[in-house]
């Protein structure tokens, strides 16, 4: 099964897919006149200046939407995902991860701009929007919208559910020697309590946990980097050397680094997948421009900042290519270098971040399921989601990560296609209306 999934993943994440992602991000980068670099002041003013807005009209506040999406993003992608990328593609993956994220900020802007522009309320007064809406109503292709919804559902099950639950059980087993059966059972019960409360309960949980645990993450990461500060510059040099080495430039090496760097970056920040639009469309803000800017900030914090810090922690403190450790185990080894606070802390962080993703991504899957089968059957989806969370906590991480990679790639195709078709409808804060 692992060999089959690896082969399928290589096809899905082949050169055409990498080109599709990069082409889309570069297109919006040029269209927006490099707004992710030139509009830094506007980005922080729009986001940090409006974090205290309260919910209205049945929606959630912008800050709640931001925390909910960030909670989905900064799960295993930032701690375990970086470790799997380095394990699979070497240190050079870090360069490609950060580079692709810098350009993908504009893709995140575009998809959330469209997601808000095409959202609407259903007959029950519930806000409905996201990629489904702009594919169906913008492209007038309901069949393609259903294809996207199917892949989004599968991605929520793979990337958002089983991968997260597996990382929770792996990290707690490594840090506290806790049985995966016990972990899976507790996670399933807690997840059920949260997701049955709908998007408002999910948002409340994320608004509390995400800022607090992010602060703790920066503290223990800073402790590791301070202890191994003499290794930081050599490791940064190693990242560039591996990304652009003669061996890499000969073919497979650079492709492998780019393949895992870009795919893990997408796994982490979700830019190009369209999934974040489902939660962002629930925000009260009627302005697609501002909501798109919030999405840009998420990509920056999630990948450019946090993933880079994690990568440096792993590289300065471990011999990643000699330990033969994968995912959560490699992360635990790196943070254990500062003692029990690091070992226990990263276990708790990974578990809570992954649980945040688990609960947020359940909403992605719920809306996808609802789009395909109707609202009255969503209770069956929630029960299935809980069961799969328990299943994921007990199975091999390599298989689940490979499955998640495939789901992400298949999900991205219809979304990227729609973004390119509707590119003329996306406007940026700067003078970009005259650009195609």
Strand order of the largest sheet: 1-2
Helical element count?
20
Q: How many structural domains does the protein architecture include?
A: 1
Percent range of helical residues:
over 70%
**CATH class category label:** Mainly Alpha
Span of the ends, CA to CA: 45 Å
Strand content: under 5%
Radius of gyration: 20 Å
The biggest sheet amounts to: 2 strands, antiparallel
Structural class by sheet pairing and helices: mainly alpha
Instruction: Describe the global form.
Output: globular
The number of E-state strands comes to 2
Query: In CATH, what is the homologous superfamily?
Result: Amino acid/polyamine transporter I
Layout of secondary structure:
Layout: H1 2-12, H2 15-31, H3 35-38, H4 40-48, H5 62-73, H6 76-89, H7 92-117, E1 120-121, E2 127-128, H8 131-138, H9 142-176, H10 180-195, H11 198-227, H12 232-243, H13 246-249, H14 252-269, H15 276-280, H16 288-317, H17 328-335, H18 340-373, H19 378-392, H20 397-421
Antiparallel strand pairs: 1-2
Summarize the structure in words.
The chain has helices spanning 2-12, 15-31, 35-38, 40-48, 62-73, 76-89, 92-117, 131-138, 142-176, 180-195, 198-227, 232-243, 246-249, 252-269, 276-280, 288-317, 328-335, 340-373, 378-392, 397-421; strands at 120-121, 127-128. It has a two-stranded antiparallel sheet with strand order 1-2. It is globular and about 55 Å long. The longest helix has 35 residues, at 142-176. The chain has one domain (2-425): Up-down Bundle (Amino acid/polyamine transporter I), CATH 1.20.1740.10. It is built from 20 helices and 2 strands. Strand 1 (120-121) and strand 2 (127-128) form a beta hairpin.
